[in-house]
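Q: How do we represent a protein-ligand complex in a form that can be generated token by token?
A: Start from the inputs.
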Amino acid sequence: MRLCRFNDDCLGLILNEQVIDVSEALDALPPLRWPVPPGDALIANLAAVRRRVDAVKGMSFVQRHASVRLKSPVANPAKIIGAPANYTAHVDEARADAGIHHGGDIKTINEYGLFLKSSSSLVGPGEGVALRFPDRRNDHEVELALVIGRETDGIAEADALDVVAGYAIGLDITVRGAEDRSLRKSVDSYSVLGPWLVTADEIADPDNLDLCIAVNGETRQDSNTRHLIFSCRRLIAYASRFYRLYPGDIVMTGTPEGVGPLKPGDVMSCEIERIGRMEVAVRAA
Ligand code: MN
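Then emit the structure tokens for the protein with manganese (II) ion bound:
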């Protein structure tokens, strides 16, 4: 099932080129009282929501998904986890390019581990990226993103895909510079998730998906997740040894080679096999 959030927080079911408004299925969510549990209520109750979606989809309003404004399919992640230097060819380009390494010694994920991006940096493709430091290099990083489906503390690598709710395209937009990575990747709108959530049952092997991004029609990154240094399973198992994972936590799995600068007016076209395609506009903040 492909679920999106669109316009004024409507819930959409994607069927081919159409979006079916299934917002009525949100009635399956329990009422919340302060303090709400960490994580995203839609993802935490995804099974119940999916049952309601199936029940209401036949009587709902249909329109083309190209005509709606897509937001992040996860509204309230407790955290966004990033995987630095997780493709060997990207590590090589970072070592060769002073505009990326800024005098720093580039290691791999084996030495870095993970990092966190601010949850407040998250937007959907229809909201676009607002560049806040036009005098500095701001790069696109297209990444497979996975969304955790249930609370998880210390899971084995072999079982790790059992806790995935679904997959989406992620953009880990980055200001290059010498500051800490989590600061440079947490600017408002520098995390994009979309175009929708593809539930885990539709993707048997997330470690073999083509992914690519073009900027203004020119291909910049074009690879496959089989080149990940830490696979999806290993990323989840590793992360769960450091912090409890909550429904709606997003793991951006790392970017392949071909990262490059963005400027206001650019349009990024991102595509991942079995997930779909999204266009994201870049503007000045
Ligand atoms: Mn990244």
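The chain has two domains: 2-71, 80-284. Helices lie at 41-44, 46-56, 88-96, 98-101, 109-112, 181-184, 232-242.
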